[in-house]
Every structure is written in structure tokens, then in C-alpha cells.
Amino acid sequence: MAAKEKPIKKGKLSEIVVERLNARISSGELKSGERLPTERTLAENMGVSRTVIREAIRIMVDNNVLELRDGCSYVRQLSFDEIMSNISKTIIPDEVSMMEIQEVRAVLEGYIVKKAVENITEEQIARLQEGIDRMAQVMAEGGNGSIQESDFHKGLAEATGNSALKSIYMLCEELLSSAQHNAWRVARAIGARITAVEEHQAILDAIRSRDKNRAEMLIQAHMDYACENLRRMYEQEKTE
């Protein structure tokens, strides 16, 4: 039995109970899939009524932290995507962490493009081509093609058919999205040559030809240039 906690004396009681239970879940004292102590036990340990405990549990169920099964409360088991999302909230988006994440992304991209060559469908190829065509149009009109670029790489991850790989890649993509957008802006501002359309078209052509080695070579060169743009952006920020 858990040690008796200090009685709750102020604030909205149910919210304080929620905070305490969340802390026990975060610390690992209450594990994913584990059944909570009974309402009576929780009430006695926290020095509150069972009505307060019941309200706190309702709040946590509504927030998808707990789930009810057969009249009992359990810590909800997180999906892989939810775990990835929680990880993203703990990463500080500074220069060092973003450059390191870009390195991880580059490694993933090499594997992703090879798996895409093996598994991509003609329909998926057609969607990627539409995205490149749209990128060319946006850039010709003076816009930023970073959104279309992001969609292209997400499409490649989708084409692998590996949901875990896609989730891990999407975590990197989510963390880098703002920095990548700014890197495009800085590259344009300093007059750097923007080769995104040509690079993505070449990658897609290699995939369409089922040329795994060429596709991997092209995407690694693309990642090297993306890393250079990101580094350039941070250098620019230091001078502003």
C-alpha cells in the first residue's frame, strides 16, 4: 500500500488530486496499463472524500490519461505516436539540438528512400509528382516551397509501409519544421541558389526507375545541402 500523503487543504481538491496522480504516472510509480488503487484507498491516502477522487478520475479519463475497464481505473497505455509526441515536448529547439536532429533525419532519409523504392505504389508516385509540380509553381510565384518539400518527405516515409519508421521520421520533421522554413527564407535573402525542385525531381525519377543506389545518393546530397542551409541560418541569426 502506498504511504499516506499529506492531506490536501487548499485549492480545488479534484485538480490537486489530478496533479498528484499525474506526478505519480510521470515518475513511473504508476505505470502504463496499471490499475489505480481503489477510490477508498486514494481518498484515505490523500485525506479527501471519495467524491473528490471520483471527480479527479473523471477529469483524467476525459484527458485520456486514465481509462475505465470493468468499473476500475487504469493508466491508459500510450500509442507509439503519443509517445513520440511526448518526447517532442521535452526537446529544447536550440542550435545544437536542431543540428543533431538534422543529422538523425539524414540517416533516416537514406533508409526511407531505399524502403520507398521497394514499396512505393504508382499512386503514391503520382502524388509526389503533383507535389513537386506544385512546389515549382509556388516558387515561380515568389513563394516559399518548404511546405511542399515537407509533404514530399512525409510522402516518402508513408511509402515505406513502416508505421514506426514514419512516426520517428515525423518527430524529426515536426521538430525541424520551423527551422527549415527559416532556412529557406535566409537562403533566398542572401541570394543562395534554390535547387529544391530539381533535387526532388531527380530523387523521384530514381525512385520511379527503382534505382535504389541512385535514390540514396541523391537524397544524401539533398540532406547535406539542407544541413548547410540550416547552419547558414544559425550563422545569420548570430549577426542580426
How does this structure look, described?
The chain has 240 residues and is mainly alpha-helical. It contains ten helices and two strands; from the N terminus they run H-H-H-E-E-H-H-H-H-H-H-H. It has helices at 13-27, 39-46, 50-62, 80-88, 95-119, 122-140, 146-159, 163-189, 196-208, 212-239; strands at residues 66-69, 72-75. It has a two-stranded antiparallel ribbon with strand order 1-2. Helix 7 (146-159) runs antiparallel to helix 8. The protein is elongated, with a radius of gyration of 24 Å. It starts with 12 loop residues before the first helix and ends with a helix. The model has no long low-confidence stretch (mean pLDDT 85).
Q: Quick recap of the structure?
A:
With 240 residues, the protein is mostly helical. The protein is 71% helix and 3% strand.
Keyword list:
single chain; about 240 residues; mainly alpha; two-stranded antiparallel sheet; about 70% helix
